[in-house]
Specification:
The chain is α/β, with parallel strands linked by helices and 343 residues long. Helix content is 27%, strand content 23%. It has ten helices and 14 strands. The protein has helices at 13-22, 43-46, 81-91, 108-115, 137-141, 151-166, 195-198, 212-224, 257-264, 313-327, and strands at 3-8, 28-35, 60-61, 72-75, 95-98, 128-130, 145-147, 169-181, 203-204, 230-237, 243-251, 271-273, 291-297, 302-309. The strands form two sheets. The protein has a seven-stranded parallel beta sheet with strand order 3-2-1-4-5-7-6, with helices on both faces. It has a seven-stranded mixed beta sheet with strand order 9-10-8-11-14-13-12. The two termini are 35 Å apart.
């Protein structure tokens, strides 16, 4: 069984990662690659890491019509730009996994607060399923449109939701300190990402309120069943990929938190709770679709939780394929790496 697949926005880092992963998928067949400024070029000229028959494919314009036999569309376009492509794909009867932010929010009001622009198709927000795979499987299986979560919210919500549901957190005191590799800022040329600008330095950005804070709070409330306030500060590191999120948390009975998380994720293929006292590293999840979580208990009321993902895989393209697998009735781990690159 082969499912014909289109990737729109295929020449960015997440698009290229989608190509790499999908080309190894036993049931997905890439037949359309859309781009914007690179339209008309061969894939190999724009993404030199890709070889084989895909490297000789010609990049179509991002808004070019999709063939009738395409059943699944991944949109890896900027916010607002993605919404138009998503609408067209849905109107032509295709299933869509959107990696932009355009359908991650429940209301157009929250979207406008986070992104500073009006949503172009607010009526579609009701049709989208927020694709945090481990917490929305049943809805994803019947969805036509899945909104892939942001990388920062993925690394934050996976450890946070079980603790919120258990009622052991002080939901007014959640501090999230995250650090990401430079690929999270995209492939477009930016002065602040030049080698001389970023090398041997670490910088915070997005203050006083990064747009992903709205996403974290909205879905912590929906999935964790608690209204929360998140103090979120992201940083960019001079490395290609990886994300390390440190949650500074207070609450009660911190001695139970490790077993609570371990029991919640015991049968999850892509979430690993490390032994008590062990903390994860970006190096040990790079190239995998895994989230590693470690807990350091400080006292009865305070703890630090460290969560690590590969921002391009579990934080983007890998989770998108995990969601697509669920949408199409395949094993959700199909075509996805559980093991990290080593060394």
């Amino acid at each position: 069984m082969k499912i014909n697949v289109a990737i729109l926005g295929s020449t960015g880092y997440t698009g290229a990662e989608l190509i790499r992963l999908i080309d190894n998928h036993p049931h997905f067949n890439i037949t359309h690659l859309g781009a914007h400024s690179q339209a008309g070029k061969q894939v190999a000229d724009v993404i030199p890491s890709i070889s084989g028959h895909i490297s000789s494919m010609t990049l179509a314009a991002a808004d070019s019509p999709l063939a009738d036999d395409i059943q699944l569309v991944f949109t890896a376009l900027p916010h607002t730009a993605a919404a138009e492509s998503v609408k067209k794909a849905l109107n032509s009867g295709k299933k869509v996994v959107d990696l932009s932010a355009d359908f991650r929010h429940q209301t157009h009001i929250t979207y406008q607060q986070a992104y500073g622009v009006a949503h172009p198709y607010p009526n579609l927000l009701n049709d989208a399923v927020y694709g945090l795979s481990e917490w929305a499987r049943e809805k994803i299986r019947s969805a036509k449109l899945v909104a892939n979560p942001g990388c920062y919210p993925t690394s934050t919500l996976l450890p946070l939701i079980p603790l919120l549901q258990a009622g052991v957190l002080d939901d007014k005191s959640i501090i999230v300190d995250s650090k990401s590799g430079a690929s999270g800022a995209g492939r477009s040329a930016k002065t602040n990402l030049l080698y001389c600008e970023i090398n041997e330095g670490v910088s915070a950005y997005g203050l006083p309120r990064h747009r992903h804070a709205w996403e974290m709070e909205e879905w912590a409330k929906e999935l964790g069943l608690k209204e929360v306030q998140v103090r979120f500060v992201p940083h960019i590191l001079p490395m290609s990929r990886g994300m390390l999120t440190t949650l500074h948390l207070s609450g009660r009975d911190t001695a139970s938190w490790h077993s609570l998380l371990s029991e919640t994720y015991a049968n999850e293929p892509f979430v690993r709770i490390l032994p008590e006292g062990s903390l994860p590293s970006t190096k040990f999840v790079a190239g995998s679709n895994r989230c590693d979580i470690g807990i350091c208990r400080l006292n009865e009321h305070d703890a630090v939780i460290v969560s690590c993902i590969d921002n391009l895989i579990k934080g983007a393209s890998g989770q998108a394929i995990q969601n697509a697998n669920l949408m199409l009735g395949f094993d959700e781990s199909m075509g996805l790496p559980q093991h990290a690159q080593w060394p």
